[in-house]
Amino acid sequence: MSYRDMTIEEVQNEIIEEFSLFDDWMDRYDHLIEEGKDLPVIEEKYKKNEYLIEGCQSRVWLYPEFIDGKVHFKADSDAIIVRGIIAMLIKVLSGRTPDEIIDTDLYFIDRVGLRQNLSPTRSNGLLAMLKQMKLYAIAYKAKQKS
Amino acid sequence: MFDINKIRSDFPVLANEVYGKPLVYFDNGATTQKPESVINAVTEAYRTYYSNIHRGVHALSDISSEKYESARERVRSFINAASKEEIVFTSGATASINLVAFSFGERYVRRGDEVLISELEHHANIVPWQMMCERKNAHLKVIPVNDDGSLRLEELDKLITDKTKIVAVTQVSNALGVIIPVEKIIEKAHEHNIPVLVDGVQGIQHGHVDVQELDCDFYAFSGHKIYGPTGIGVLYGKRKWLLELPPYQGGGDMVDRVSFDKTTYNKLPFKFEAGTTNFVGAIGIGKALDYIEFVGMADIIKHEKELTEYSNRRMKEISGIKIYGNTKEKISIMSFLIDRVHQYDAGMILDKMGIAVRTGSHCAQPIMTRFGIEGTIRASMCFYNTKEEIDILIKGIEKVKMMML
Predict the structure, then answer these.
(1) Which of A1, B166, B391, B397 is the most exposed place for a label (fewest CB within 10 A)?
(2) Cα separation, B131 vs B117, whole angstroms
(3) Which of A33, A78, A124 sits opposite B404 (nearest CB)?
């Protein structure tokens, strides 16, 4: 079953379950690093300033596409742990309708202990990426209506 | 006698654990921890004699004013300025540099003039000059660096022209730890009667500073990087310059007489201290300098040199480490990258091991650009750090490599 056949809730629960196997931070980070390595690298043509989200600590690129009423995201970062977190956000939010993306409560972030990585004081681009994902969803929704 | 255990016990934060591991605090370049004596002095000020300075006729105001002025004298003697009038308290080195950039610019800089800085500067010693140059239609020129992080001083003769109005250079690079021979720059600039501002933020806590011997025209530093409180800084300026420069900000305490027609300004140094200053912070700086003298600068230098040499040796044992800043004269800062590892990933893993380092561009993007990198991992050590802590960092780096590669 691919993630797109699952509800957002199901995907989040699955991520939480995966993480529950790890007792310490090291295994969690190892897992994130693996996820980061598995995330498909985005093509160089999308790694341009237009899609760049500036963080002081690492850079994130986010490229959206709107196909058949669903928003698909491709994303990348120059830091591998950040890529790991991106991989999870994409699992949860890519291929969803704008409304789903706008309304989703991303409870898995707290449950897997990633809140500090998404805090506004960590300028690693992740929080800005999440905001940007929602902004794209809002824009596509408006476009759909018009 | 230099007793490292005793010294460490003077700094309450160092006893902390993070994620259940003993804290290894290697972010002293960003800010230093405070000894108990500084914390107590600040608390005591608020608890026992707190009152505004230079204003009341009452007893507490007298005590506060007296303590504030004693702190000024303490700073004066620490850097051996000729007089207390030359010591201006600011909110930090950034404010000190902005003050000079603004006031000096207003008084002396005209269209087409030049300001000379170096490629190593912290943003705080770039942007204020850039802003002033923009306002005055002047040009910012830059002393370039060599691959080892040293400045290309042989370019000075070309860079200093009859348009150069002021030179502003750092004493120590915050990003690389490289010590700059500012005395040579000052000598060269003075041959052309050009004043020099030295950004001493990363220098003053690691070595003896004598502003008269150095003969710099301005010297700026921050309290929080020399074991003092945050929000307080110092600007030293030669009397002749401070007399000439117009005030930076207007307000209370910097005035002599005020009427709607004309205001005359207070004498030095109060002319540059508008509003109620952070006098409690100043009292804290005074205590921090007492503490440094109590430990002894000679011993501090010796211990930090040992840390520098030890960390350099240990780092070179690990494969795939590139150190940025490889001059002979360095303070205890290790700025490095691990081959094929992003600095932010390394920083996150080190953090989980209780090691506090800084990752990123260290507010010095031009020098990062010079080396074609986005940033580095910076372990900045000081006299309360130990070789055992360096061993923990080395293990941490091995761990990072194991996890990431």
Answers:
(1) A1
(2) 14
(3) A33
For residue B377, CA distances in Å to B78, B177, B305 come to 32, 12, 20
Parallel, antiparallel, or unpaired: how do β-strands B114-118 and B139-143 relate? parallel
Which residues, 6 or more positions from B236, have their beta carbon under 8 angstroms from its beta carbon? B79, B81, B86, B87, B88, B211, B216, B218, B219, B220
pTM: 0.94
Q: Of A105, A102, A111, nearest to A144 (Cα)?
A: A102
Give strand pairing partners of B88: B235
Which tokens in the block code for residue B223?
């309290």
- Tokens in use for B291? 């503490």
**Which residues contact residue B400 at a Cβ distance below 8 angstroms, ignoring those fewer than 6 apart?**
B338, B341, B345, B346, B349, B350
* pLDDT tens-digit readout, A25-69: 889 999 999 999 999 888 888 888 889 887 767 888 999 999 999
Q: Strand B21-22 relative to strand A52-53: parallel, antiparallel, unpaired?
A: unpaired
Q: Which two tokens stand for residue A8?
A: 């957002």
Distance CA B160, CA B142 (A): 10
Give the pairing of strands B218-222 and B196-199. Answer: parallel
A1 pLDDT higher than 60: no
The parts of chain B modelled with pLDDT lower than 50 are: none
ipTM above 0.90, yes or no: no
Query: Contact B345/A124, CB-based, under 8 Å?
Result: no
The residue annotated as part of the active site, out of A21, A56, A67, A116, is A56
Task: From B101, B103, B75, B105, select the one nearest B88 (Cα to Cα).
Answer: B75
Contacts 24+ apart (CB under 8 A), A44-51: A46/A74, A46/A76, A47/A76
* Token code pair at residue B176: 């690389």
Is B335 in contact with B176 (CB distance < 8 Å)?
A: yes
Token duo for residue B348: 């996150």
Of A25, A57, A78, which is closest to B359 when you measure between CB atoms? A57
Instruction: Please tell me the distance from the alpha carbon of residue B26 to that of residue B308, in angstroms, as a whole number.
Output: 12
Bridge partners of residue B21, in order along the sequence: B18
In this structure, what token pair is assigned to residue B249?
A: 């900000």
Q: Is the Cβ of A7 closer than 8 Å to some Cβ of chain B? A: no
Q: What is the DSSP letter of B20?
A: T
Query: How many angstroms separate the CA atoms of B303 and B390, rounded?
Result: 13
A residues 16-75 lying closer than 8 A (beta carbon) to B: 25-26, 29-30, 33, 56-59
**Helix ranges (DSSP H) in A39-79:** none
Q: Confirm if B91 and B231 have CB atoms less than 8 A apart.
A: yes
Contact A81 B352 (CB under 8 A): no
H/E stretch holding A74 reads: strand A70-77
Q: What angle do CA B389, B393, B395 make, to 5 degrees?
A: 115
Whether residue A82 lies within 8 A of chain B, CB to CB, comes out as: yes
Q: Where are the alpha helices (DSSP H) in A21-104?
A: 25-38, 80-93, 98-103
